[in-house]
């Protein structure tokens, strides 16, 4: 089995318009590295100085990783990882 990563519309231009991508289980950083290997440039949109960017929200099975182990949170086989860029209005 694998982990399903849901890609938000703003990043689908990097993933060839794919909305869902299967990755091996592992930490969120490991999953982002897998994504970047397949779709170069996506990691720079998600990671800054080894941590998830402030405006990027990541959930594993509807649980915010900020309340778990952040980028060290592990996604297991069958989990769903959702990446959501924060939206602000000004």
Q: TL;DR?
A:
18% of the residues lie in helices and 32% in strands. By secondary structure, the protein is an alpha+beta fold.
Description:
By secondary structure, this protein is an alpha+beta fold. It has one domain (3-85): Ubiquitin-like (UB roll) (Roll). The chain is built from two helices and nine strands, in the order βββααββββββ. It has helices at 28-38, 42-46; strands spanning 3-6, 20-23, 26-27, 47-48, 51-52, 56-60, 63-64, 74-75, 80-85. It has a five-stranded mixed beta sheet, with helices on one face. Strands 3-8 form a two-stranded antiparallel ribbon. The longest helix is centred in the middle third of the chain and has 11 residues, at 28-38. 19% of the residues are buried. The mean pLDDT is 95.
SSE diagram, text form:
Layout: E1 3-6, E2 20-23, E3 26-27, H1 28-38, H2 42-46, E4 47-48, E5 51-52, E6 56-60, E7 63-64, E8 74-75, E9 80-85
Parallel strand pairs: 1-9
Antiparallel strand pairs: 1-2, 3-8, 4-5, 6-7, 6-9
**From the 3D coordinates, which CATH architecture would you assign?**
Roll
Looking at how many chains there are and whether they match, the oligomeric state comes to: single chain
Largest sheet: 5 strands, mixed
Overall pLDDT, averaged?
95
Approximately how much helix is present in the residues?
A: 10-25%
Let me know the number of strands: 9
Extract low-pLDDT stretches.
none
Number of helices: 2
Strand content: 25-35%
CATH topology descriptor: Ubiquitin-like (UB roll)
């Amino acid at each position: 089995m694998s982990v399903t990563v849901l890609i938000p519309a703003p990043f689908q231009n990097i993933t060839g318009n794919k909305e869902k991508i299967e990755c091996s289980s592992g930490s969120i950083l490991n999953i982002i590295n897998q994504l970047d290997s397949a779709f170069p440039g996506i990691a720079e949109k998600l990671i800054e100085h080894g941590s998830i960017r402030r405006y990027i929200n990541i959930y594993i099975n509807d649980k915010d990783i900020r309340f778990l182990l952040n980028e060290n949170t592990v996604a297991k086989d069958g989990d769903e990882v959702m990446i959501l860029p924060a939206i602000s209005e000004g």
